[in-house]
Specification:
mainly alpha, 2 domains, two-stranded antiparallel sheet, two-stranded antiparallel ribbon, 6 helices, about 55% helix, globular
């Protein structure tokens, strides 16, 4: 299932594939550091625009020429961040809201550029987004103010948009699968 429920685990496996020469793993690793780390703030994977550029460049050199388009978009955002960091009138702390300054700026600028229509999301396919384990709604389907999907506290692999969906899914199937998924990660 893509994306994996645990992005740190995905990062580990994609790095293995990328270091073994898989162009697809390189491309997806660039995506992981770019968009998925932004969309899933609680994933444990920080957005890293420089790593995205590196892995997309590697993917392009290994047969994925459309990766260059992503490199160009990421370099545009990097240029804005560099200008902000060099602007003496902006005295930005090293960490903003508990996130390293560069990652925070990256996340903020990327979201603003999407909102303003300057760029479009890299992953347009709903099937690539984390969905509620019961009803299938994504974060963008939720009402403003409640735009987060909560993980199952036990297995930390299934997400829910509401307590009601979590209860229904538990009764339907998740009670049988939860313990096995939790022990698979241990």
């Amino acid at each position: 299932m893509y994306p994996p429920q645990d992005l740190r685990e995905a990062e580990k496996w994609l790095k293995r594939g990328a270091t073994n020469g898989s162009a697809k793993a390189m491309f997806l690793l660039g995506d992981l550091y770019f968009e998925h780390a932004i969309e899933h703030e609680d994933s444990g994977v920080l957005p890293d625009i420089d790593a995205s550029i590196h892995w997309w460049s590697e993917a392009a050199e290994h047969g994925k020429p459309h990766a260059y388009e992503r490199v160009a978009a990421a370099r545009g955002i990097t240029q804005v961040i560099d200008e902000m960091e060099q602007d003496a009138s902006l005295s930005l702390p090293r960490r903003l809201h508990g996130t390293p300054r560069r990652a925070f700026l990256f996340r903020t600028i990327y979201r603003k550029m999407i909102k303003d229509g300057v760029i479009t999301r890299l992953s347009q396919h709903e099937s690539r987004r984390v969905k509620c384990g019961h009803c299938g709604r994504t974060r963008s389907d939720l009402e403003e103010g409640s735009r987060s999907l909560q993980k199952c506290e036990r297995c930390r692999r299934v997400y829910y948009c509401s307590v009601e969906c979590q209860h229904e899914h538990w009764r339907a199937t998740h009670r049988r699968d939860c313990a096995a998924m939790a022990t698979a990660d241990a």
